[in-house]
Amino acid sequence: MTDNRGTKASKTATKAAPRATGLKVRRVNTSPGVHPYDEVTWELRDVVMTNWRDGSVNFEQRGVEFPDFWSVNATNIVTSKYFRGALGSSARERSLRQLIDRVVRAYGAAGTEHGYFASPADAEIFEHELTWMLLHQVFSFNSPVWFNVGTSAPQQVSACFILSVDDTMESILNWYREEGLIFKGGSGAGLNLSRIRSSKELLSSGGTASGPVSFMRGADASAGTIKSGGATRRAAKMVVLDVDHPDIVDFVETKSREESKIRALRDAGFDMDLGGRDIVSVQYQNANNSVRVTDEFMRAVIDDADFNLRARLDGRTVETISAQSLFRTIAQAAWDCADPGIQYDDTINDWHTCPESGRISASNPCSEYVHLDNSSCNLASLNLMKFLRKDLSFDADAFVAAVELIITAMDISICFADFPTPEITRVSRMFRQLGIGYANLGALLMATGRAYDSEGGRAMGAAITSLMTATAYRRSAEIAAALGAYDGFARNTDAHRRVIRKHAAATDAVRTVGTDDARVLAVAAREWERAQSVGEKHGWRNAQVSLLAPTGTIGLAMDCDTTGIEPDLALVKMKKMVGGSSMRIVNQTVPAALRALGYAEETIEAIVEYIAEHGHVIDAPGLRREHYEVFDCAIGERAITPMGHIRMMAAVQPFLSGAISKTVNMPTSATVEEVEQIYLEGWRLGLKALAIYRDNCKVGQPLSDLRGAKRSASGGAGEQTAAQPAAAPSGEHRPVRRRLPKIRQSQTVSFTVGGAEGYLTAGSYPDDGLGEVFIKMSKQGSTLSGVMDAFAIAVSIALQHGVPLETYVRKFINMRFEPAGMTDDPDVRIAQSVMDYLFRRLALDYLPEQTRAELGVLSAQERARQLTGQHGGTGPADAVETADPEVAEVAGPDVAGAAVDAGAVHTHQVGLPTTLEVRGAMPRSVPPGEALSAQNVVDAPLCFTCGVTMRPAGSCYVCEQCGSTSGCS
Question: Fewest C-beta atoms under 10 Å: which of 325, 381, 410, 626?
Answer without folding.
Answer: 626
